[in-house]
Amino acid sequence: MGEAQKSKLVRDTTAVVALLLGTGFIAFLLAWIIFGKPNIDNSEETVAKRIAPIGTANIGDPFLLDDGTLFLSNTATTATEPSTKTTVAAPVDPGKAAYDKICFACHDAGVGGAPKIGFRSSWGNRPEKGSEMLVINAINGFTGEMGIMPPKGGLPSLSDDEVRAAVTYMLATIDGSQLDDTSTPATNTNVKSAPIEIAITPTTPATATPVIVDDGRGKEVYDSACFICHATGVAGAPKIGDEANWKPRIEQGIELLYSRAIKGFMGESGLMPPKGGRMDFSDEDVNAAVDYMVIESQ
């Protein structure tokens, strides 16, 4: 490129830049004339508004929509309006509560001759004796032709009122209505019943004593049911830890103890309900509980 061409390029570029600057200046003057001086508010309040966040969090206060309608969110309503709902607990039947503590063990399934709850036929002539007599027998215990009723069902911690409530609850299930008791309430609760004589078939003592081990399940089963009678020796049950009482039983053989605990047994001293009244226990559970009691009583 020659010198002449370079000079021409510089002149053309300068002319274009000058033209653009002049056009911009003229446009600025025209805008000034037409719209006047720009009114720019740089006060502190205006600046604060300009730099404020676009939105804010609503923590429950009402606000207006674009059309001016007052909007209340569910959250706001919940926060500002106290709840008036109250939960009323259903009343608990004291009779059923007492029944569920221990009585169910025999009376649910009619274990050991116990009259079955809700079945009038299984109660025989008991209701005719009067509810007061039934309460007395339930509190003090009773030995009848069909079996043994341990005092307070084998749970001494039950109060007399709880036993009475349980009897009333069971009577109410017979044919769907409670029996009317027109008999005179008994005032003497120290009623004694005559024991019954039961023949026992002699058994041959076992010749070998197997090794018995409890893996922990036996104590668990014992603590959930067996303790009710065997902890204190209720209704003739051999008290756990009583070596003298358990020795003749252990000598008969562990298999016989298993069988009687599972199927039930009526002996000279009392009644062993099948599975202790807990028909939900498996045979293995019952055997484990027997093992535990034997170990603790040797």
Considering the chains and any ligands shown, give keywords for the structure:
298 residues, mainly alpha, Cytochrome Bc1 Complex, Chain D, domain 2, two-stranded antiparallel ribbon, two-stranded antiparallel sheet, 10 helices
Structural overview:
This protein is mainly alpha-helical and 298 residues long. Among the domains are: 94-176, Cytochrome c-like domain (Cytochrome Bc1 Complex, Chain D, domain 2), CATH 1.10.760; 217-296, Cytochrome c-like domain (Cytochrome Bc1 Complex, Chain D, domain 2, Orthogonal Bundle), CATH 1.10.760. Helices cover 44% and strands 4% of the residues. It has ten helices and six strands; from the N terminus they run ααββαααββααααββα. The protein has helices at 3-35, 44-51, 74-80, 94-107, 131-140, 160-172, 217-230, 243-251, 254-263, 283-296; strands spanning 63-64, 70-71, 142-143, 148-149, 265-266, 271-272. Strands 1-2 form a two-stranded antiparallel ribbon. The protein has a two-stranded antiparallel sheet with strand order 3-4. Strands 5-6 form a two-stranded antiparallel ribbon. Strand 1 and strand 2 form a beta hairpin. Helix 4 crosses helix 6, helix 7 packs across helix 10 and helix 9 crosses helix 10 (283-296). The longest helix is centred in the first third of the chain and has 33 residues, at 3-35. The N and C termini lie far apart (124 Å).
